[in-house]
Amino acid sequence: MTRLTVSADIGIFGGSGFYELLGKDAQDVWVDTPYGLPSDVITVGEFEGRRVAFLPRHGRGHQYPPHKVNYRANVWAMRELGVHTVFGPCAAGSLQPHVKPGDFVVCDQLVDRTTGRVGTFFDGPIVVHPSLADPYCPRLRRVLVEEAKKLGITVHDGGTIVTIEGPRFSTRAESKWFRSAGWEVIGMTQFPEAILSRELNLCYGNVALITDADSGLEGDASVPPVTHEGVLEVFKANNHRLVGLLRAAVRRVSPDPSCACHSTVTMPGAK
User: Fewer CB under 10 Å: which end of the chain, C or N?
Assistant: First the structure.
């Protein structure tokens, strides 16, 4: 492993199955941050002709449950490497009958229902109130949707993802509540990952791979509640499609100084 001697343009937060993407010449880099160490070493290498940094948000051994991930260190480390664009794919559950396991959802909105996470870099003495009306980069969303359609993936253009604390899944009553609000997707990691990325003026895009129907579908006993084993099975079966989508998206993404994501936060006193 090396210390901070490399850089990258694009960052990917993900799970198992992504390590082999960056090739045999990739380097493992420890990045220390003001918030401690990230979940694991960051692997930096060439991917589709771009310098890409990959970090498993839960650690390589999946040792950090979602409520224990050091999200601030993870996002800060990406910025330290020079990353300007971040992809945050995740496994997620469906809250609506028209969103089915195996579908992809490129989310455009986020609801936070967590209880104990630090969700900002601005916790004093510098106080900033960022505007996060639209938490996901519209440029990245467009690229992800267009490339998914080209690949023949069933993709939903837009959707609200509600983030729960975890590591448990929802009760039936909670799932019914979220469904009645009209939200499409449920997961455990988008908050505060997406918010922190925007606080550092990084473009952030999510693609949710639907693995389950959360607590099942009311009135349809053939659709069982989610299980951990079931999530892993569906994710593994569809991981190659997710990798293919990321390949296509990385090829198309380029830095755009005019993107509104880069002006989300202006530090006090900045000129």
Answer: C
Range of the domain at 15: 10-258
Q: Does residue 165 sit within a domain?
A: yes
Question: Do the domain assignments include residue 30?
Answer: yes
Phi-psi group of 213: left, alpha or beta (phi > 0 → left; psi -120 to 50 → alpha; rest → beta): alpha
Which of the residues are catalytic? Answer: 212, 214
Domain CATH code at residue 230: 3.40.50.1580
How many whole angstroms separate alpha carbon 161 and alpha carbon 107?
Answer: 7
In a domain, 265, yes or no: no
Average model confidence (pLDDT) for the chain?
89
Query: What are the DSSP calls for 62-102, one per residue?
Result: T-S-GGG--HHHHHHHHHHTT--EEE--EEEEE-STTS-TT
271 lies in a domain? Answer: no
Question: Contact 58/69 with Cβ under 8 angstroms?
Answer: yes
pLDDT band, very low/low/confident/very high, at 71 (cuts 50, 70, 90): very high
Sheet with 208-212, edge to edge strand ranges:
109-113, 160-164, 185-187, 90-94, 208-212, 104-106, 155-157
CB 161 within 8 A of CB 92: yes
Query: Contact at 8 Å (CB) between 184 and 133?
Result: no
pTM: 0.91
Rounded Cα distance, 223 and 217, in Å? 6
Q: Three-class SS of residue 131?
A: coil
160-210: pLDDT as tens digits: 999 999 999 999 999 999 999 999 999 999 999 999 999 999 999 999 999
Number of domains making up the chain? 1
Q: How far apart are the first and last CA of the chain?
A: 38
